[in-house]
Amino acid sequence: MNLDLVKIAPKAVPPVCKIIDYGKYRFEQAKREKEAKKNQHIVGIKEIRLSLNIDTHDFDTKAAHARRFLQEGNKVKVSIRFRGREMGHPEQGHEIMKRFAESLSELANVEKPSKMEGRNMLMFLASKPVK
Predict the structure, then answer these.
(1) Is the separation of the CB atoms in 115 and 121 below 8 Å?
(2) Which of 58, 79, 124, 129 is 20 to 30 A from 112, alpha carbon to alpha carbon?
(3) pTM above threshold 0.70
(4) DSSP one-letter code for 105
(5) What is the DSSP string of 86-99?
(6) What is the per-residue pLDDT for 102?
(7) Assigned CATH for 45-127
């Protein structure tokens, strides 16, 4: 009849087998996996780079970009690179990060608070769950 004997649950006692057309079974399984892959949403990480002496308009522009990324469902990585004598003032970086998080507080939660890693200060924002 052109059918195959396929083990469905080989670890069960006794093993479970089924008589089916194996080629058709593999095709249907691949089709289901493809459909599931099409429906899933991959969360990306977008990066916003700030500087220690950022002006208000530049700050607002960066916040608007971050707002757009969050509305698309992505996470946002906010970073500040410290250069030269700026390394002596990490508290100013924390202030900028706190201001940035407050400007996006209606859309985002702080996933990881601002933290120094070498010459960079990083903070991660994730969009708030929809109610």
Answers:
(1) yes
(2) 58
(3) no
(4) T
(5) GGG-HHHHHHHHHH
(6) 93
(7) 3.30.110.10
